[in-house]
C-alpha cells in the first residue's frame, strides 16, 4: 500500500451491533410481522402514518438506551488524530441512523459524521424543510418548532429516496487513498458501490466485517471478526504505522 493520506470510512449496522442495536438482515429484518422494507418507504407512510411513526418511535427509544462501543470510540480517535499525523483527511460516512458515532466523537473541531441515511434523533418538516433534534414521539403529528405545521416525519432516507450528501461523498471517494467498509452487508446501493468507485480511482480497499459481505470480492483486503476487536486493532495500526 502506498503512503495513505485521505481515508474514507463507510459503516453499517454491524458497527452498532455490540452496543445492542440489532442489524437489519441478520435477524430476518421483521418488525411485528412487517418486513422492514414495508415500513420504511414513502408509500408506507402515505398508507399508514401511525404504523410508521410507531416503528420509528420504538427505534428512537432504543437509540437513547444504548452507548457507543469500542469500535465507535476507536473511529472517533482516528478522526481526531489522523489529520495532524498524516496531513490528510478522514471522512466518516455511516448508513446508521443512531447517534453512536456522534456521541463517541463529541464536540470536535472540524470532524463530523455524515449520516447518508438520516438520523433517528432528528425530525424533518415537509412543510418548511427545517430539521429539528427530536427525542419524543411523532405520533399525533406535533407541530414543527420552526413553522408550526403538523408536517414532521422521521428524518430517515426511506427505500426509494435519495441518500444525503452524495456529491460530497463521491468527491471524497475520488480523493481517497484508502477506503474502509465496516459492518455492512453490501446489500444496499448506492453505499454498496462505494468500494468500486474508490478502487477505480486508485484507493486501496479494506473490509472489516463479522463475515464476508456480499461485496467482499471487490476488496483488496478483508479482516473478519467482531467490530469491537477488528476496528480498534486497525486504528492502532494506522496511528502507529
Ligand atoms: N461486528 C462486525 N460486523 C458485524 C457485527 C459485529 N459485531 N455484527 C453483524 N455484523 C455484520 C453482518 O455480518 C452484516 O454483514 O454487519 C452487517 C450488517 O448488515 P445489514 O444488517 O444489512 O446492515 P447494513 O449493511 O448497515 O444495511 C444497510 O439497509 O435497511 C437498510 O437503510 C438501512 O442503512 C441500512 C442499509
UniProtKB/TrEMBL annotation:
Notes on the domains: 2 residues (Tyr-56 and Arg-59) present in a large hydrophobic pocket are probably involved in substrate specificity. They are important for desuccinylation activity, but dispensable for deacetylation activity.
Cofactor binding note of this UniProt entry: Binds 1 zinc ion per subunit.
Enzyme class: transferase
Keyword Transit peptide recorded: no
Residues noted as binding NAD(+) in the record, renumbered to the chain: 12-31, 95-98, 183-185, 227
Pfam family, one: SIR2
Entry keywords, A to Z: Cytoplasm, Metal-binding, NAD, Transferase, Zinc
Protein's name according to its UniProt entry: NAD-dependent protein deacylase
Its biological purpose: NAD-dependent lysine deacetylase and desuccinylase that specifically removes acetyl and succinyl groups on target proteins. Modulates the activities of several proteins which are inactive in their acylated form.
Necessary cofactors: Zn(2+)
Subcellular location: Cytoplasm
Domain Deacetylase sirtuin-type as annotated: residue spans: 1-241
E.C. code: 2.3.1.286
Organism per entry: Novosphingobium decolorationis
Active site, renumbered: 117 (proton acceptor)
Binding locations of Zn(2+): 125, 128, 144, 147
Binding residues for substrate: 56, 59
Predominant location category: cytoplasm
Sequence similarity: Belongs to the sirtuin family. Class III subfamily.
Catalytic activity annotation: N(6)-acetyl-L-lysyl-[protein] + NAD(+) + H2O = 2''-O-acetyl-ADP-D-ribose + nicotinamide + L-lysyl-[protein]; N(6)-succinyl-L-lysyl-[protein] + NAD(+) + H2O = 2''-O-succinyl-ADP-D-ribose + nicotinamide + L-lysyl-[protein]
